[in-house]
Structure formats: C-alpha cells, structure tokens
Amino acid sequence: MSSQNPERLVYSHVAELARAFGHEHRLKLLDLMSQGEWSLDELAKRSGISVANASQHLQTLRRVGVVTARRAGKNVLFSLADGPVFDAVVAMRALAERNIAEVRLAVTDYFGGLDDMEPVSLDEIRARMRDGNVVLLDVRDEAEYRQGHLPGAIHIASDELEASLSRLPRDREVIAYCRGRYCILSSDAVALLRRNGFRSRRLEDGYAEWKAANRSEASDETTGLRTG
Amino acid sequence: MSSQNPERLVYSHVAELARAFGHEHRLKLLDLMSQGEWSLDELAKRSGISVANASQHLQTLRRVGVVTARRAGKNVLFSLADGPVFDAVVAMRALAERNIAEVRLAVTDYFGGLDDMEPVSLDEIRARMRDGNVVLLDVRDEAEYRQGHLPGAIHIASDELEASLSRLPRDREVIAYCRGRYCILSSDAVALLRRNGFRSRRLEDGYAEWKAANRSEASDETTGLRTG
DNA sequence: GATACATTCAATTGAACAATTGAATGTATC
DNA sequence: GATACATTCAATTGTTCAATTGAATGTATC
Asked: What is the CA radius of gyration of chain B?
C-alpha cells in the first residue's frame, strides 16, 4: 500500500541495472570476480585498466547491488553480490551469441572448432568423472585455483603446462577448463596437449559457470562433481 | 582462424546489448512486443511516447538484433526477434527483484499481497486446468487477446469486467492474468472480483512469460496448457 | 602516534546518448 | 501516376557518462 504503478518503478531500476552491465570494463570486472574476491589493485592489474578507473567502475556496480566489498587487512576485497548476478550476465551473453552473427561466428570459430574439438558440457563431465576415465585439468593461475575449483581437478597453470606434461596421463582424456566460456586458456591448453600427443578436449563452460550453477542449486549436496 | 581474442569481442557486443536494454522506454516497448506485433503508431500510443521517439528507440533495438520489423499494408509491424530476447529481460528483472530492495518491496507490496492473494504459478495452473476446477481469465485488451492467449482462457477486458460479471462462475476459482509479471490489470481484476464475492487469484506471470517459456521449450507439444 | 599504502573523492575534458522538430522517404491505395 | 499517410532521417540542444589527474581519506602496521 504505497507505490502507484510498480511497472515503471521496476523498469527504471532494471534499466539502471542494464546500464551498469553496459560497459566492456565492467563486464570484464564481473568476469574476474566470478572467480572469487580480489583487491582493487589486483582487479586493475588483471583487467588492464587504471586503479582509479577500476575503482569508479566498481562503485557503479556496487551502487546497483551486484558487487559487494569487505575489508581484509589493508585491502578491500570485491566480489559478486549474492543473487543471480552471473545468471543475468549469462542470459545477455546467450542472447548475444544467438542473435549477433559476429559473436556467434567468433565463438564457434574459436571454441566450437574442429569435430573432435567438440567441447564437453558440465553435465557430461560429471558422469565421466564418476567413471574415472578422464582427468580434469584447471589451467587458470594459482590464485584463482586456490580460491576455488571443480572437485577433483588438478592444477597446472597454462604458462607452466608445456614444462609439466609429465604430470598428465596419456591413457585418459584430459579435459581442460579455465575461467569461463570465453576464456581462451583452456582452448590453448588443448591445442598444446594435442600437439604433444595427448587426447584432450575443452570443457565448454568454466569455473564461473560451474560456480553459478552450484549456487543456484543452493546447498543441494548431490550436484557437485564427485571425485569418487 | 580469424579474430584474436574472442572475449573482448563478445563483451563489447554484450555491453552494447546491455546498453540497448538500458532505457525505460525501450523496456516498455519490449514489454509491449512480448504480446505480439504492433505498428509504430500503436507502440507509440501504448507506451505514451511520441512517434519519432518510439521510432528511434525501436531502431536502437533493431540495430542490436532484438527486434524485427515486417511491412503489412501501410504499416510496419515490429516484434521481438527470435532468440532468447525476453529471457534476457527476465534475467535482469529477476536480478532487480532479488538485489534491489525497493523493487522487491514494491513487487511483494503489489502482487505478493495478502495470504490468500498468493499468486498462482504457470505450473500450478496447468494441473488445475486439467482438473477443470478453475476458470482462466484474460483481462488484457481485445487486440492483445486476439494476437494470442493461454489455451482455454476466456476474455473480458479489464474495463468491461464490472459489467460482465455474470459471465463468470461463482463455483470455481477465477484465475486472472494479463500482460506479464508487472502488469497490474489482473491484480486490479482480482480485487474487483473479490469485492463482488468471487473466489479469485492472480496468475504470477502473464502472457509474455508463458509465451517465452513455450518458445524455449521449442515445439514440445506436451507443454502448453490443455483445455481437456 | 606516525608512516605507508590502498582506496575513494573531486574536478576536468571529451564523447555518447535522449528528446524534439521538421523535412524526406517510401509504400499502399485510389 | 498521383495522393495520402506511416515511418525514417537529419539537425539541434541539453544531459549523462567515461577517463584522467591529483588530492584526500582511512586503515594497518611499525
């Protein structure tokens, strides 16, 4: 028993939210935070923009309630807020991939690739991990892996992969993953592994999507990957 | 074998897409088109903005591929493009409803309402339509109803409802729906019906959401509502 | 309490966007 | 083919947003 027309109120906020998503740098920052929490300095470094600029974009995201911050020592750590934040990004990405030809082409070009490059889905990897006939390989950097990773995944950062091939089995398929759907690290890793005689494919989605999916499924204990 | 880093390309397009959603008028236009196709004149009238202004916003939406247009007689009819356009709007709305307190309050205030006002879900109505113990009532205007409606729904425009109460049964619950989740017509209709001694509740989502859901479920013949 | 350092604020400049107006285009109908 | 009318284009003005810089704040650590 207060506001008059809810539609206008809702849409003015939705529009504000959409504008908050409407900048490349902010999408990149959200992408980074989908891996865990980071200081401003770290976010600036990883996104390749200045500290002041990153700070302002982060404030924009905080203002609309999609990013939260907490202090830890002398740093403030930024992370995605609770709620379906990443899901909204995913919905926009899905729309872009479906309706914008240039995006569709770039993605299939890069990731859909050759027939035997057919990426593996999260559902598929679940079953195959149970059977134990695959190795899950996380090729993100150390800090990202430490903040969280798929159950049962081993970690070799992409820039150390070539020197660490002996740690990988040749009798099982190596499924590589990285930050998310549009991260090229795992794609490059698969190419490297194949050049060296391994059987390898890419996980279609990455840590970000896995985490978002497991968040939505709340605390349903049966949904995570199991190492066996 | 063309573009370098797909991430930046994807995100620049996603950002453009997000900005296209980032205006109240455009969200309203998308809302209207979620009911069907309309001429520019009709869209301007229904959204309450000038024809020239509506045209420009529609061009913005066409440019990013979320709206299409076809000529019919002396009018151009605008409609949502194929693909998960409405789904993206829904994801943003869900985020706003969850993360922005003002929105959450306004919505529960208006639609969540009293205990026995508990809105009915699309899933629930499916089962109850089969049992035949409810009447589905579409209170949108004639033109909207004609462009498409839920299977089995009867139509009484909201501004004719009070004069047409005799057409409704008193021994079954009347489930009213309108354009979508944030449309107040069905909410008002429920209030009117209750004042006149009917048992009545509101469908939580409206035609837009139903149509989007049935579109996603492709041509799965088992998913629509059945009249019996 | 003083220092160091991470983050935020404030002020500036340039660029992009929103709305309005009036003219121009293009298609149907006569 | 001429006319009527729906839609789009072009030009304008005011507003909002992006990025940079340098100063200011605030918290941890010594």
From this structure: 19
Q: How far apart are the first and last CA of chain A?
A: 54
Q: Is A112 helix (H, G, I), strand (E, B) or coil?
A: helix
Cβ-based neighbours of A114, under 8 Å, separated by 6 or more: none
B69 CB less than 7 Å from any atom of strand D: yes
At A68-114, the pLDDT tens digits run 999 888 889 999 999 999 999 999 999 999 999 999 999 988 887 65
Nearest Cα of chain A lies from the Cα of B88 at a distance, in angstroms, of 5
> Per-residue pLDDT tens for B73-132?
888 999 999 999 999 999 999 999 999 999 999 998 888 765 567 788 888 898 888 888
The separation, in Å, between residue A57 CA and nucleotide C11 C1' comes to 18
Residue whose entry in the numeric block shows the structure tokens 């998308």: B30
How many Å separate Cα B42 from the centre of its chain? 17
Write the single-letter amino acid at A85.
V
Q: How many CB atoms are located within 10 Å of the residue A74 CB?
A: 6
| Domains located in chain A, CATH noted | 6-80 (1.10.10.10), 113-216 (3.40.250.10)
Q: Is B91 exposed, middle or buried (0-12, 13-18, 19+ CB in 10 A)?
A: buried
Is the CB of A11 less than 8 angstroms away from the CB of B21?
A: no
Whether A188 and A176 have beta carbons less than 8 Å apart is answered as no
Spatial CB neighbours of A46, under 8 Å, sequence gap ≥ 6: A32, A38
Is B183 one of the annotated active-site residues of the chain?
A: no
